[in-house]
Specification:
By secondary structure, the chain is α+β, with helices and mostly antiparallel strands. It folds into two domains: about 1-90, no CATH class; about 115-149. It contains five helices and four strands; from the N terminus they run αααββββαα. A four-stranded antiparallel β-sheet has the order 2-1-3-4. A hairpin with a 1-residue loop joins strand 3 and strand 4. The N and C termini lie far apart (about 85 Å).
Amino acid sequence: MEWVRWVFSVVSIVVLCLEGAQAADSECSLMNNSTCDRCLQNVKCLWCNTDSKCIEYPVRNILPPSSLCKLRDARWGVCWVNFEALIITISVIGGVIILSLLLCCCCCCRKKKPRNSDTRDNERAVREMEQRRARQDEREAEMKTRHMK
């Protein structure tokens, strides 16, 4: 459940970054050559590990362009996760969710679909019951004729 909280915080950060981007540029550039933790206290900032720069997150792009900072060196929200790890993690989680849904759908459809062997067994059971009833009716008729004599 920790990853859910983490993904929620990243989404919250994205929403907050969309607001007030102009003021963030000057605030982020003031934190150059500081620490990653200090830079990321402002949710509108992106930390680049290669040159220890605190820059404004490019809100027009979903991911920062490689000319700004490579994905493996970009930090945003928390210092211990880079964008590559974030993309891989979200892709794996999304894939697992999609596969789980498909598996559940297949299992549910398979349970609802009547099996051929079941219908054959049912047909056979119905035929046998009809034959038993017919024999029983014959016996009853025989018994009545015997008692009538």
